[in-house]
């Protein structure tokens, strides 16, 4: 993906025009209000959970579990009573656990080699910490809402940017882990309008270091570079003295643009290049497919209607044998069956209702993000807004499910109303709960606390379910979609079909195109989920989502056309499953990612990874399946209402 692709200067221009100004400037619309500090005022430093990032020695992720900063095995210095800092629901769900710390930062005052505390590491703690160092864990701090980062130089564009988090320790050349016990904290501040009483934090960089002190700590102990690194002894006890220095540097960066350094697009050229690449392929394919389809359809419809005319004329006497033979093929033949109720209409309508709900939610979320409401300074706003939207849109789910069920001549309407808000969210919640049990068992900070679980259940039962019921009630009262042709009493026999129209091959063929449309973006979303990188390229995501919808609709309609031409009228489930198959590809892609980019080495990590991937793929299955079904439904209604049936 990040191979050496020779991008032209026009691609660069495009990238700068499209990616940089719009996507980043959009972030500061609502934002959080800036905090101004006076000189020497205390600036709190908060600690967040310790998260795995790709290990520096091999670039592979070794774990997916995060830990509380004050997990007893880390033995980090803590204040007398560490307190949780209040967080949004989305922030908690995405694994943030922000707490107070005992670091003392005073605005504008440099301090060197301040002693924090001394901790003793027994064998178990030493083993635990050494293992986390080998796995490439990173410490996450927040100063005034900004993550403490490390300065990194992007070699391709030779720009510097800040990557959130810094190393817990490093693996030395002799593959011994050394533990970082000293932190050089550089805080950049900006003076608003030259007023020394209005100072704002605009950047935080931490350079961690490993220094085995021998003796008392004073303000110069940490300065010499000659101290040996701290090795935690796994066979005995190790005493470690924690120290830190704070340096304040004046910066011209304004508060409004302080996030720019963190939101680094790793080589936007390649990102654009691959996006345009897949977009072109997808668009060309879709246009070809639809134009061929339209031409074929137009021919069919004129032929059918002309035949009709001839047949009417024929009533007067002479018969046209030749025309009768001609009519004996094509999709017109199944007009008496095409609107026959499919098997399991209840399940289908529930999936479709939930699919519609997800569809609208995703659309709204991306729009909010494009408008800049989901700025990274609003920690967890993405998760929060998604949950809120999903809850409120229970109404849409209920309505669509009920109306589809009514149109499919379903009779168990009570079951439909009850199961629509229960089935899919229930599956998601149960899976989520079981995965969480694994995290609990491992004392991981990624485990969602019980109180948050209860809040989610409460939101679900108090808001989502009643809204869904209301939607169902309206949906059942609305008129059903009437089919343009009558359904025969006796079902027609379905002739055997060619190989590629059989269920599995057709699903595999149809599913790959929508997957192709979002493949590039998926890579970045995956690395933001698993490598805790900030994802903010919603412009790209918006384009990809649009492409995916178009492709999904176009290829499914094409498959339904071939299916009907082959006199197979079971298009309802077939269209749903075929379009939903793109989720199968996503899951397969996740498994490939597991093998190539992750090395979780342990049951828990693997189960968690596969569990979450399966969950996301399931939701995606329902989403794309619904897109496929609704476009096919529209198509079938359209073509059968344009021919005359005698
Ligand atoms: C604090 O340290 C930084 C970095 O060494 C330096 O640029 C700055 O002038 C110092 N500030 C004061 C008040 O000494």
How would you describe this structure to a colleague?
This protein is α+β, with helices and mostly antiparallel strands and 646 residues long. It has 3 domains: 30-261, no CATH class; 266-309 and 505-646, no CATH class; 343-482, no CATH class. 49% of the residues lie in helices and 13% in strands. It has 16 helices and 17 strands. The strands form 6 sheets. The protein has a 4-stranded antiparallel beta sheet, with no helix packed on it. Strand 13 and strand 14 (177-179) form a beta hairpin. Helix 10 (413-419) runs antiparallel to helix 12 (450-477). The radius of gyration is 30 Å and the shape is elongated. Residues 1-31 and 317-325 have low confidence and may be disordered. It binds 2-acetamido-2-deoxy-beta-D-glucopyranose.
What key phrases describe this protein's structure?
646 residues; alpha+beta; 3 domains; 16 helices; 13% strand; elongated; disordered N terminus; binds 2-acetamido-2-deoxy-beta-D-glucopyranose; EMP70; transmembrane; signal; transmembrane helix
């Amino acid at each position: 993906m990040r191979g050496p692709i020779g991008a032209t200067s026009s691609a660069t221009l495009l990238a700068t025009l499209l990616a940089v100004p719009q996507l980043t400037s959009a972030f500061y619309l609502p934002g959080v209000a800036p905090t101004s500090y006076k000189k020497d005022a205390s600036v709190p430093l908060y600690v967040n959970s310790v998260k795995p990032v790709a290990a520096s020695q091999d670039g592979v992720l070794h774990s997916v579990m995060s830990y509380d900063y004050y997990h007893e095995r880390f033995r980090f210095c803590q204040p007398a009573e560490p307190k949780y800092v209040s967080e949004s629901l989305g922030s908690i769900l995405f694994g943030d656990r922000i707490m107070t710390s005992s670091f003392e930062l005073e605005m504008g005052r440099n301090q060197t080699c301040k002693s924090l505390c001394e901790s003793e590491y027994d064998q178990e703690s030493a083993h635990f910490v050494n293992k986390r160092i080998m796995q490439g864990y990173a410490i996450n701090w927040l100063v005034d809402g900004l993550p403490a980062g490390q300065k990194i130089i992007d070699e391709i564009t030779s720009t510097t940017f800040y990557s959130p988090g810094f190393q817990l320790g490093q693996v030395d050349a002799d593959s011994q882990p050394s533990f970082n016990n000293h932190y050089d904290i550089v805080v950049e501040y900006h003076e608003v309008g030259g007023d020394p009483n209005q100072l704002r934090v605009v950047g935080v960089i931490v350079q961690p270091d490993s220094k085995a002190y021998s003796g008392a700590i004073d303000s110069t102990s940490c300065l010499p570079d000659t101290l040996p690194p701290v090795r935690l002894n796994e066979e005995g006890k190790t005493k470690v003295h924690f120290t830190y220095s704070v340096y304040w540097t004046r910066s011209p960066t304004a508060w409004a643009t302080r996030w720019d350094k963190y939101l680094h697009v790793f080589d936007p050229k390649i990102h654009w290049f691959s996006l345009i690449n897949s977009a072109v392929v997808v668009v060309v394919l879709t246009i070809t497919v639809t134009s061929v389809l339209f031409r074929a359809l137009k021919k069919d419809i004129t032929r059918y209607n002309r035949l009709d005319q001839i047949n009417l004329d024929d009533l007067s006497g002479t018969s046209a044998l030749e025309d009768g033979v001609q009519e004996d093929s094509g999709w017109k033949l199944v007009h008496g069956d095409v609107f026959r109720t499919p098997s399991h209409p209840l399940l289908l309508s529930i999936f479709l209702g939930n699919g519609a709900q997800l569809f609208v939610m995703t659309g709204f979320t991306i729009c909010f993000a494009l408008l800049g409401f989901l700025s990274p300074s609003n920690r967890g706003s993405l998760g929060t807004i998604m949950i809120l939207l999903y809850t409120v849109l229970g109404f849409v789910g209920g309505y669509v499910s009920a109306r589809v069920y009514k149109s499919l001549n379903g009779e168990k309407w009570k079951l439909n109303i009850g199961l629509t808000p229960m089935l899919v969210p229930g599956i998601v919640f149960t899976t989520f709960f079981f995965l969480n049990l694994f995290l609990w068992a491992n004392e991981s900070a990624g485990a969602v606390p019980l109180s948050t679980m209860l809040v989610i259940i409460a939101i679900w039962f108090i808001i989502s379910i009643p809204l869904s019921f209301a939607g169902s009630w309206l949906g059942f009262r609305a008129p059903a979609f009437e089919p343009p042709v009558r359904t025969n009493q006796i079902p027609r026999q379905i002739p055997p079909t060619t190989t590629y129209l059989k269920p599995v091959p057709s699903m595999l063929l149809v599913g790959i195109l929508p997957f192709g449309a979002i493949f590039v973006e998926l890579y970045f979303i995956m690395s933001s989920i698993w490598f805790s990188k900030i994802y903010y390229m919603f412009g790209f995501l918006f384009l990809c989502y649009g492409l995916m919808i178009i492709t999904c609709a176009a290829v499914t309609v094409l498959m339904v056309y071939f299916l009907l031409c082959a006199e197979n009228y079971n298009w309802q489930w077939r269209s749903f499953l075929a379009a939903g198959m793109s989720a199968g590809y996503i899951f397969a892609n996740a498994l490939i990612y597991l093998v190539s980019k992750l090395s979780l080495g342990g049951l828990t990590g693997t189960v968690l990874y596969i569990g979450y991937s399966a969950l996301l793929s399931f939701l995606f299955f329902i989403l794309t399946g619904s897109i496929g079904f609704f476009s096919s439904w529209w198509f079938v209604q359209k073509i059968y209402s344009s021919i005359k049936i005698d």
